[in-house]
């Protein structure tokens, strides 16, 4: 910032403000910080959405096990479990719990399929599943260890 002390009485004028170069340096610094921070922020959002879906999937799995104790079979859908997908999960994932067919023992799979922006951003994990035995899968390139 430049300050000059000249005025009508002293012959010096007072100039206040920033030069164009100072302003451009500040804009450049803010731009660099934003370029670093934005990808980290979106990565955090994707992980947070995935974590919320996983938490709900574990809750559904637990509800299925309780339902098995009471009804001696697994529930065919979420409505039978008196459960609805929370809005923060349903805005990013479609959660289903189909029964396994073609096996002698009863079974289910809870599946969370990404939708919308989560589908576009979370290609490394993709569709998540957990079954009655607690076996977890992820369809993306990172696999179970990187996604669960």
Record keyword descriptors for this entry.
148 residues; alpha+beta; four-stranded antiparallel β-sheet; 11% strand
- Name the poorly predicted regions: none
- How many DSSP-defined strands? 4
N-to-C SSE series?
HHEEHEEH
Instruction: Describe the global form.
Output: elongated
* Average of per-residue pLDDT values: 90
Main sheet, how many strands, which sense, barrel?
A: 4 strands, antiparallel
User: How many individual helices?
Assistant: 4
Span between N and C termini? 53 Å
List the helices and strands and how they pair.
Elements: H1 20-71, H2 87-90, E1 93-96, E2 109-114, H3 116-121, E3 128-131, E4 136-138, H4 143-147
Antiparallel strand pairs: 1-2, 2-3, 3-4
């Amino acid at each position: 910032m430049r300050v000059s002390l000249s005025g009508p009485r002293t012959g010096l004028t007072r100039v206040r403000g920033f030069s164009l170069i100072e302003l451009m340096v500040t804009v450049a610094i803010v731009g660099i910080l934003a370029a670093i921070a934005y990808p980290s922020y979106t990565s955090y959002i994707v992980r947070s959405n995935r974590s919320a879906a996983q938490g709900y999937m574990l809750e559904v799995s637990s509800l299925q096990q309780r339902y098995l104790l009471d009804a001696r079979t697994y529930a065919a859908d979420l409505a039978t479990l008196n459960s609805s997908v929370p809005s923060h999960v349903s805005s990013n994932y479609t959660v289903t719990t189909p029964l396994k067919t073609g096996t002698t023992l009863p079974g289910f799979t809870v599946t969370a399929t990404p939708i919308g922006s989560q589908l576009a951003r979370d290609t490394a994990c993709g569709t998540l599943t957990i079954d009655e035995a607690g076996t977890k899968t992820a369809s993306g390139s990172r696999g179970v260890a990187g996604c669960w």
